[in-house]
Task: inverse folding
C-alpha cells in the first residue's frame, strides 16, 4: 500500500469527532483506526470456534457470538444475505466442557450450553452485565426494549400510521438482540469486491434439514459498538458519490425534454442549486401509446407500467438531451417498474428474447425472473447498460408488485437492490441505487426511496424519527418525498418546513404526484417562503464538505451520521422520548419544526432537550448548558440546530451543482470555546469516482482549534493522503460566530488587516451574527497554516454579554418589517431602528463593539416600550380605532384594516419580547 493510501486508511482517526478533548483523548481515537475494506471471508478463524456435538459456537467479538445447531452436524460457512464476513480478529475468551456442559466466557458474555439437542430455554443461556446488574438471556426471552429498525416503504403512510410494520432493530434498551439467520438464503461465493470479469456471487438455498443459525448481540447500551461490529460481519455502509448530497428534482409528470431543459434553466435563473434530475415513468412508452398500438401486457401487470424504450414524442433525441444535462453539471436517473419483464414492443426485445432462448418471431414476452442469473445478466447487459451509455447515471427502482421471486425466501426488493448495486460495482463505478428497503443486509445497497406519503403535517412530523431510527439497522440514507406525494398540493409554510428538514436529511429530494396544483419549484412560492427555501438550498450546498466527511465516517464506523440521540446519551430517558430530535454528524443536533406557527406570534414553540455539555443554538447564538429541556420559539426562517461548543463545520463557497468548481476556499466555521479548551476535526475528500476510497485513495485535512485566554488559534495541518485530481493549493476562510471582533489577526505569522469589502486576504466582521470572517492567502495543501486571533483584554470574560445577540437582531428585523408594513398608520420607532442597526454599525466599525454591545439592551428596551405603547393604544373597540387612524394618519381605513393594524402591533411586540436580550 502506498504511504498516502495508508495514511488515508486511518479512517476513524481522520474522521475524528469535534468535541472538547485533551490531546491524549485525540490520540486515543487514532489508535482505533480501521483498515481499508478487504475481501470478505465468511469462514471464521478456527481459533474462534468451539464445537460440542451438533452445536457450533463462533466468538466473533467479545459481545457477538454466532450459535449454530444442525441435526446432521453440518455447519454453514457460506456467506448469507446478511452475514458476509466472519473472519475477524479472534477476541480473548475461554471455554470449558464438563459433564456435558459447555461454558464459554468472553470479556462481555458468558454462554452456557448443556448439549441436549437444538437450542431451547432449557439448555442455553447467555449472561451479561447491564447498568451494573447481571442479565440472563435464554431462547424465547422477549426483546421488550427493541428500539426498532425500518420498513420497506411509507407508501400511503399518514404520519406514523404505516401500512407495513417497522421491523426490529439491532439494538435494544434490554441490552441484547438476537438475529435469526436460520432460513435466510446464502451466496454461492464470497467474491464481493471483484470486477466485471470475475464470478458474480449468486443466491443459493440453505441445505435441507433441521438447523438453527443465530447471532447474539450483547452490547448493553453501547449501541455504537454494536453497529460497528455488525458492519464488520455484515458489510459496511458504502459511501455515496458526492453529488448525491446535492438537490434532487423529482416529480411524477410526463415531462418532455424541452420542459426539463426549461426546468433546469429555471433553477439557474433563480440561483437554486441542483444536481440530480429524477425522470419518472413517462420517459418510456406509456399506456395511451401502447393502447393505440393494440398492445397488452402479457405478464398481467398494468399496461405501460414497465418500459425500456424511450417515448419518442417526449424525447426525440435522448442522447442529445442527456448530453446537454451532463453539460449543465447534472446527473439523470430513470424510474423503473420491471415486473412486466420485456414485452414485444420494446426496442431491446429481439435481443433479449434471443438471449433467453425465445424465438423473437413468436412475440412471446420475456418473464421477469431476477434470481435467474442468465436473466439478470441479460437484464443488465441488454436493457440497462445501453441506456447508461446514453447518459443515465443510476436507476430508480420502483418495485411495487409481487412479494416473492422464483427462488423461495428471496424478496424481489432485496435482490433487485443487490443486482443493480453490484452491477455498478462490477462496472467500476461508485455505485448508487434508489429503491426501497428490502430487509436486513440492505444497508449495503443504498439510497432508500421511502415511497408515496401523504402531504400533511403529520407525515413531516413522523419523518425525523423514522429516518433516525433506520440507523438501528445501518440504513443511513433514506430519501423522502419532500413536500409529500399525494394529493401533492401543500401550503407554503408546510413546504418550507419540509424543505428545512430536507436540508438536514441524508438526501434532499422534492417530489409530488401527477397533480397540476402540486408545485415543487421553490421560486414559484410567494415571499418570504421562496427566499427562505432558496437560502435553505444554499445552506445545504455550503455544508456539503461536512456531510461528505460525516458520510465517510458512517462507512468507517457503521454508525449513520443521522441517528437517534440515545446513541450518544444512552442512559438519558430524554434521548429516547424526544423523537423529533436527532444527531446530524458529530457536530450538531437538529430538532426540525414540524408544526405550524402560532397564528398571533407567527412563531412555532418547540420543547428542545439539550444533552449534557455546552451547546450553541445556531440561528440565535444563544448558549445552553445541558442536560436540560428548554422552550424555544422559531420563526419560519429559523431551523433549530444546536452546535457543540467548539464545533468545527467544514463548508464550501456557493455552487450551482456539486463540483462546479474546486472547494477554494475551504470554509471552517468554528463555534466558541471556553478558556484552555480545544477542538479537532478532520475534513475528508476523494475523487467521488469508483471505490478507490475503500483502498485508502483519499485525503484528510486535520484542523485543531484552541482557546487560551483572549487568544484563539486555528492550526490546519498539511493534507494527508492523495487522490487523482485533488486540489494542490487553496485558501481558507475561518468563520468565528458569536464572539467579539479581533484586535489583530495573523496567518503564518503575517498580519492581515481589516477589509470591509475585498476579495483579497484580510478579515471583516458580520455584525448581525457577531462573526469574524478571516480569508487567508492561498497555500499549498502540503503546507501547515496557523491563524492566530487576538482579542482585546477581557473579551473572553465578557463573552456572556453576546449571548443570543444574533437571535435578538433577527427578532428586531422581523418586528421592523411588521411595523413598516402598516405604513402610513405607523412606522418603526427610532429606538427600535437604533437597536436593529447595531449589527450593521458593528460591521463597519468592529472596534466599537464593547460600547455598542453595552448600550444594546437599553435601546432594545426603549424600542420595545414604544411598540408596547402603540399596542396599548390600539387595544380599543374597532370603531374607535378606525376613527383614530383616520383622524391621526389622514388615511381611509376600515374595520378589517384596523384589525390588521392591531394584529401587526401585537405580532411585533411578541417578537420583541421573545428576542429580548
Result:
Amino acid at each position: 500500500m502506498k504511504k498516502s493510501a495508508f495514511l488515508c486508511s486511518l479512517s476513524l482517526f481522520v474522521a475524528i469527532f469535534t468535541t472538547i478533548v485533551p490531546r491524549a483523548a485525540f490520540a486515543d481515537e487514532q489508535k482505533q483506526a480501521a483498515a481499508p475494506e478487504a475481501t470478505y471471508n465468511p469462514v471464521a478463524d478456527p481459533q474462534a470456534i468451539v464445537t460440542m456435538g451438533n452445536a457450533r459456537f463462533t466468538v466473533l467479538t467479545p459481545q457477538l457470538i454466532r450459535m449454530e445447531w444442525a441435526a446432521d452436524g453440518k455447519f454453514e460457512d457460506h456467506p448469507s444475505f446478511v452475514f458476509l464476513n466472519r473472519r475477524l480478529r479472534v477476541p480473548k475468551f475461554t471455554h470449558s466442557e464438563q459433564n456435558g456442559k459447555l461454558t464459554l466466557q468472553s470479556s462481555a458474555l458468558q454462554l452456557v450450553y448443556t448439549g441436549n439437542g437444538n437450542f431451547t430455554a432449557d439448555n442455553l443461556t447467555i449472561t451479561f452485565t447491564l447498568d451494573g446488574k447481571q442479565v440472563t438471556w435464554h431462547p424465547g426471552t422477549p426483546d421488550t426494549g427493541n428500539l426498532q429498525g425500518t420498513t420497506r416503504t411509507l407508501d400511503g403512510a399518514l404520519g406514523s400510521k404505516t401500512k407495513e410494520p417497522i421491523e426490529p432493530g439491532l439494538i435494544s434498551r434490554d441490552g441484547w438482540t438476537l438475529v435469526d439467520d436460520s432460513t435466510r438464503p446464502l451466496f454461492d461465493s464470497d467474491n464481493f469486491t471483484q470486477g466485471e470479469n470475475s464470478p458474480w456471487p449468486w443466491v443459493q438455498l440453505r441445505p435441507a434439514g433441521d438447523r438453527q443459525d443465530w447471532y447474539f448481540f450483547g452490547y448493553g447500551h453501547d449501541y455504537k459498538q454494536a453497529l460497528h461490529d455488525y458492519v464488520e460481519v455484515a458489510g459496511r455502509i458504502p459511501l455515496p458519490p458526492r453529488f448525491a448530497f446535492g438537490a434532487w428534482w423529482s416529480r411524477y409528470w410526463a415531462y418532455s425534454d424541452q420542459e426539463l431543459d426549461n426546468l433546469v434553466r429555471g433553477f439557474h435563473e433563480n440561483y437554486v442549486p441542483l444536481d440530480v434530475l429524477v425522470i419518472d415513468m413517462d420517459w418510456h412508452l406509456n399506456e395511451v401509446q401502447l393502447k393505440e398500438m393494440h398492445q397488452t401486457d402479457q405478464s398481467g401487470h398494468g399496461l405501460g407500467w414497465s418500459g425500456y424504450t424511450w417515448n419518442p414524442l417526449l424525447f426525440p433525441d435522448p442522447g442529445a438531451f442527456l448530453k446537454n444535462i451532463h453539460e449543465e453539471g447534472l446527473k439523470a436517473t430513470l424510474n423503473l417498474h420491471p415486473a412486466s419483464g420485456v414485452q414485444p414492443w420494446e426496442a431491446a426485445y429481439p435481443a433479449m428474447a434471443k438471449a433467453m432462448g425465445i424465438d423473437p418471431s413468436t412475440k412471446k414476452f420475456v418473464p421477469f425472473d431476477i434470481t435467474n442469473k442468465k436473466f439478470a445478466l441479460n437484464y443488465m447487459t441488454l436493457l440497462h447498460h445501453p441506456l447508461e451509455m446514453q447518459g443515465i447515471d443510476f436507476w430508480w427502482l420502483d418495485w411495487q408488485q409481487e412479494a416473492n421471486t422464483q427462488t423461495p425466501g428471496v424478496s424481489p426488493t432485496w435482490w433487485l437492490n443487490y443486482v443493480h448495486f453490484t452491477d455498478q460495482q462490477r462496472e467500476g463505478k461508485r455505485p448508487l441505487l434508489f429503491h426501497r428497503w428490502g430487509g436486513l443486509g440492505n444497508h449495503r445497497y443504498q439510497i432508500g426511496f421511502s415511497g408515496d406519503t401523504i402531504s400533511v403535517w403529520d407525515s413531516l412530523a413522523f419523518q425525523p424519527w423514522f429516518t433516525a431510527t433506520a440507523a438501528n439497522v445501518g440504513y443511513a440514507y433514506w430519501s423522502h418525498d419532500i413536500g409529500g406525494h399525494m394529493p401533492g398540493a401543500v401550503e407554503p409554510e408546510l413546504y418550507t418546513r419540509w424543505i428545512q428538514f430536507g436540508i438536514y436529511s441524508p438526501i434532499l429530494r422534492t417530489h409530488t404526484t401527477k397533480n397540476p396544483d402540486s408545485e415543487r419549484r421553490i421560486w414559484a412560492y410567494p415571499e418570504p417562503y421562496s427566499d427562505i427555501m432558496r437560502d435553505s438550498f444554499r445552506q445545504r450546498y455550503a455544508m456539503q464538505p461536512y456531510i461528505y466527511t460525516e458520510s465517510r465516517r458512517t462507512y468507517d464506523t457503521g454508525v449513520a451520521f443521522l441517528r437517534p440521540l440515545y446513541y450518544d446519551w444512552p442512559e438519558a430517558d430524554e434521548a429516547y422520548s424526544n423523537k423529533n430530535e436527532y444527531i446530524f454528524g458529530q457536530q450538531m443536533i437538529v430538532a426540525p419544526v414540524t408544526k405550524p406557527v402560532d397564528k398571533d406570534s407567527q412563531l412555532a414553540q418547540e420543547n428542545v432537550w439539550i444533552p449534557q455539555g455546552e451547546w450553541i443554538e445556531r440561528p440565535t447564538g444563544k448558549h445552553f448548558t445541558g442536560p436540560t429541556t428548554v422552550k424555544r420559539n422559531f420563526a419560519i426562517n429559523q431551523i433549530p440546530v444546536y452546535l457543540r461548543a467548539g464545533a468545527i463545520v467544514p463548508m464550501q463557497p456557493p455552487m450551482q451543482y456539486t463540483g462546479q468548481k474546486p472547494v477554494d476556499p475551504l470554509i471552517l466555521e468554528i463555534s466558541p470555546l471556553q478558556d484552555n479548551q480545544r477542538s479537532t476535526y478532520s475534513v475528508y475528500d476523494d475523487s467521488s469516482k469508483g471505490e478507490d476510497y475503500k483502498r485508502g485513495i483519499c485525503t484528510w485535512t486535520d484542523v485543531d482549534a484552541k482557546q487560551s485566554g483572549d487568544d484563539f488559534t486555528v492550526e490546519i495541518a498539511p493534507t494527508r493522503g492523495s487522490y487523482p485530481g485533488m486540489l494542490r493549493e487553496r485558501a481558507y476562510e475561518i468563520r468565528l460566530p458569536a464572539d467579539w471582533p479581533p484586535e489583530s489577526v495573523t496567518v503564518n505569522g503575517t498580519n492581515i488587516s481589516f477589509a470591509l469589502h475585498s476579495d483579497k486576504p484580510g478579515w471583516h466582521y458580520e455584525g448581525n451574527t457577531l462573526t469574524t470572517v478571516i480569508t487567508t492567502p492561498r497555500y499549498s495543501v502540503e503546507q501547515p497554516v496557523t491563524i492566530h486571533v487576538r482579542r482585546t483584554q477581557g473579551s473572553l470574560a465578557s463573552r456572556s454579554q453576546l449571548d443570543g445577540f444574533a437571535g435578538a437582531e433577527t427578532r428586531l428585523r422581523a418586528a421592523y418589517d411588521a411595523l413598516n408594513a402598516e405604513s402610513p398608520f405607523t412606522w418603526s420607532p427610532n429606538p427600535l431602528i437604533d437597536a436593529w442597526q447595531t449589527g450593521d454599525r458593528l460591521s463597519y466599525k468592529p472596534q466599537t463593539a464593547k460600547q455598542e454591545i453595552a448600550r444594546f439592551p437599553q435601546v432594545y428596551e426603549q424600542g420595545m416600550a414604544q411598540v408596547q405603547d402603540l399596542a396599548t393604544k390600539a387595544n380599543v373597540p374597532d370603531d374607535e380605532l378606525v376613527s383614530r387612524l383616520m383622524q391621526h394618519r389622514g388615511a381611509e381605513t376600515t374595520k378589517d384594516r384596523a384589525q390588521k393594524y392591531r394584529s401587526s402591533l401585537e405580532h411585533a411586540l411578541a417578537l420583541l419580547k421573545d428576542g429580548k436580550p
